[in-house]
Amino acid sequence: MNTNAELKNVVREKYAEIATQSKTQNATSCCGATGSCNNDVYNIMADDYSMLEGYNPDADLGLGCGLPTEFAKIKEGDTVIDLGSGAGNDAFIARKIVGEKGRVIGIDFTEPMIAKARENADKLGFNNVEFRQGDIEDMPVTTNKADVIVSNCVLNLIPNKHKVFGEINRVLKPGGHFSISDIVLEGELPVKWKEVSEMYAGCISGAIQKNEYVGIIEEAGFKNITVQKDKTITVPDEILKSYFSQSEIVEYKKSNTRITSITIYAEKPAKDARNCCEPGNSCC
């Protein structure tokens, strides 16, 4: 599992499998993607969506690690893009906020997830929510399309995070913003964790350092970067014992490495920092 293509195949295969499972089955795995464990594992990453307007239980596979739509400052009439939209959970919450005049586009590269999301949208009779199959490193969306971008526990699964944030910048309108929930690290995971495909697909071993994550966002040109929520993720022994020896588990716990779910907000500048696109300037 060394190349970007191999990592993507692991994710694609696992999430295609998850798309055909019930929420109950997914709730008994870490991020819906690792081995069998106790019923409390559902609460490790996922937050409770059921109190949000627009929530649809058929679209909630229990795969997220935050509530980005709750923090995303979405307004009526906005165009919202959901990256890694799964069965449509965040997209349908966003649709409730944007109303009939707004639009929501979900992007996912797993065909069974797209099929499930479209089925859910059809059941709900929504004509301003659509789901497109595609890679969020190369989004099937025109430039300057979205007012708001949301994503829930997806970017940690993408090998080239620089490219994704570059695409987010391209697709957002000037002055637009994003709110993304994701898994990051403080401290280093053991090397062996990165050799276990389930730990990657389970949203853990693909995570990068929190300060590196923020740095990538800054390099992509975003401003007003704010961590809206930060919570520690504890991986239960039931999961760890499936892949690691007792001595390896003890070593990990002694390391004080912190796996954390953050919801992070940032804005695309409303105009070029050089002011070259002011009326009358020739460089536009």
Can you give a write-up of this model?
The chain is of the alpha/beta class. It has one domain (4-267): Vaccinia Virus protein VP39 (Rossmann fold, 3-Layer(aba) Sandwich), CATH 3.40.50.150. 33% of the residues lie in helices and 21% in strands. The chain is built from eleven helices and seven strands. A seven-stranded mixed sheet has the order 3-2-1-4-5-7-6, with helices on both faces. Helix 6 links the parallel strand 2 (103-108) and strand 3. Mean pLDDT is 84; it is low at 28-43 and 276-284.
Write the layout of secondary structure elements.
Blueprint: H1 4-19, H2 23-27, H3 42-45, H4 68-71, E1 79-83, H5 89-98, E2 103-108, H6 111-124, E3 129-133, E4 146-152, H7 161-171, E5 172-186, H8 197-201, H9 210-219, E6 223-233, H10 237-243, H11 246-254, E7 258-267
Structural class: alpha/beta
Let me know the largest β-sheet.
7 strands, mixed
Overall CATH architecture = 3-Layer(aba) Sandwich
Query: How many separate helices?
Result: 11
Can you give the mean pLDDT? 84
Q: Please list the strands of the largest sheet in the order they lie side by side.
A: 3-2-1-4-5-7-6
What pattern of helices and strands is seen along the backbone? HHHHEHEHEEHEHHEHHE
Shape estimate: globular
Strand content: 15-25%
Number of domains: 1
CA gyration radius, whole angstroms: 19 Å
CATH T-level fold name: Rossmann fold
Q: Unreliable runs, pLDDT <50, ≥5 residues?
A: 28-43, 276-284
Please tally the β strands and state the result: 7
The span between the termini is 44 Å
CATH hierarchy, class? Alpha Beta
